[in-house]
Structure formats: structure tokens, C-alpha cells
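hiii so um. not sure if this is the right channel but i have a protein structure encoded as C-alpha cells and i wanna go backwards to a sequence. like what aa goes where. can anyone help
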């Protein structure tokens, strides 16, 4: 469970640039990746393959092997798996019904809008404990 500042996710400039670049490179498909850090401070992230069979243009899927690799990477770096990011090509950076149906309450979810190949708004969301909806969390950028 998140302690303290549930409405703020602190993201380093390097992490934000990585997410923006990954969204640009994957366009017109969705990209996805893991967010690594401590509490609500994301110090690093890394790209994961989008393994969906439903069409990567509108869906993303992190398979169990890649999920375990993300957890292992976080543990080996003395951190935890805070959550995941993904892009919404030519759509707003708001969670979809699919996102709601596949999210877990313990994670932060960062979504970046990518319009015509250019990264745009980046938002952060947390699933309510009762899984009924997401609540938006503010993203605070830090130069580290």
C-alpha cells in the first residue's frame, strides 16, 4: 500500500523522457513498461514488450515472465515495482475500460498520450481498493 502522498507520484526527468521516447518509438502502437522506485518516487523505469494478441494499436499486455523480470529488477536495485506505464496513441491520457478491468489497486499507472507520433500529456492513476474506478494522482517532476 502507498504511504503518505497517495495523490502525488514523483517522477525523475530521466524517467519522463524515457516514457515519452518509448511512446514516440512505439507509435502507432501502445508501449508499456515498468516503474521502479521507493514509495511514490519513481527513480527508474524500463520498457517491456507489448505482448497483447488483441492488437497493440489499442491494447497492451505484460506477460507473467516480463512481470517477474520487472519485480526481480526492482528488488536487485534495492527498490520496488511501483507500477506500470503505457501509451494511448491518438487518445487522451485517461484510463480506458480495458485499463480498469486489468489494473491492480497496489500499483501506479502512468499513461502518456501520443498524438500523431508526438508525446503529449502524461497522467498518473491509482485504482480504488474496490476496483470501481481510478483516481488521478498528480505527477511531480524532479530533476535528478
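sure thing!! here u go:
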Amino acid at each position: 500500500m502507498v504511504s503518505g502522498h497517495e495523490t502525488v507520484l514523483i517522477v525523475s526527468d530521466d524517467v519522463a523522457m524515457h516514457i515519452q521516447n518509448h511512446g514516440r518509438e512505439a507509435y502507432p502502437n501502445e508501449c508499456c513498461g515498468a516503474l521502479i522506485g521507493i514509495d511514490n518516487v519513481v527513480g527508474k523505469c524500463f520498457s517491456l514488450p507489448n505482448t497483447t494478441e488483441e492488437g497493440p494499436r489499442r491494447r497492451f499486455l505484460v506477460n507473467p515472465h516480463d512481470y517477474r523480470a520487472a519485480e526481480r529488477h526492482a528488488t536487485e536495485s534495492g527498490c520496488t515495482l511501483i507500477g506500470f506505464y503505457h501509451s494511448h496513441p491518438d487518445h487522451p491520457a485517461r484510463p480506458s475500460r480495458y485499463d480498469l478491468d486489468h489494473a491492480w489497486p497496489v500499483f501506479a499507472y502512468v499513461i502518456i498520450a501520443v498524438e500523431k507520433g508526438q508525446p503529449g500529456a502524461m497522467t498518473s492513476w491509482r485504482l480504488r481498493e474496490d476496483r470501481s474506478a481510478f483516481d488521478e494522482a498528480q505527477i511531480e517532476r524532479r530533476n535528478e
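oh and The domain at 8-142 is CATH 3.40.140.10 (Cytidine Deaminase; domain 2).
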